[in-house]
Design brief:
This protein is α/β, with parallel strands linked by helices. It has 2 helices and 7 strands.
Length: 123
């Protein structure tokens, strides 16, 4: 199963302080909008998202259709197909993608320890 680009979405208290901290670790802004309280940052192959006031917990994030540089891929497994595969394995969905649509969509699951996992397709 190919889930797409991986990142960790971090819930932060002060996005400006967090941005400065991760820049000190060598991360650079890849995308996002700090005035909207979210940034995507990258250091080599490691991608993190900083989100202020949007989530309660840190989230493991997968993006079908994207490379690790947030570039659209020509070939990938659509999120609705991934969702069907996981549901067939008995996985419980916290949120679901509408399987009658095409294009951008997302679903959310939790691992056995309650860690949220967001699968978020942008293309």
């Amino acid at each position: 199963m190919k889930l797409g680009a991986f990142s960790v979405s971090l819930t932060v208290k002060d996005i400006h302080k967090s941005k400065a901290f991760y820049e000190d670790l060598g991360f650079q802004v890849l995308g996002g909008e700090i005035t909207q309280n979210w940034l995507i940052m990258k250091n080599d192959g490691c991608v993190i998202g900083l989100f202020q006031g949007m989530f309660e917990k840190n989230i493991l994030t997968f993006n079908p259709g994207w490379s690790q540089n947030a570039e659209n891929l020509h070939s990938f497994t659509d999120i609705r197909d991934l969702q069907k595969q996981l549901k067939a394995k008995g996985m419980t969905m916290l949120t679901e993608a509408d399987e009658s649509t095409v294009g951008p969509a997302s679903f959310t699951i939790e691992d056995p320890d309650g860690n949220p996992i967001l699968v978020d397709q942008h293309v």
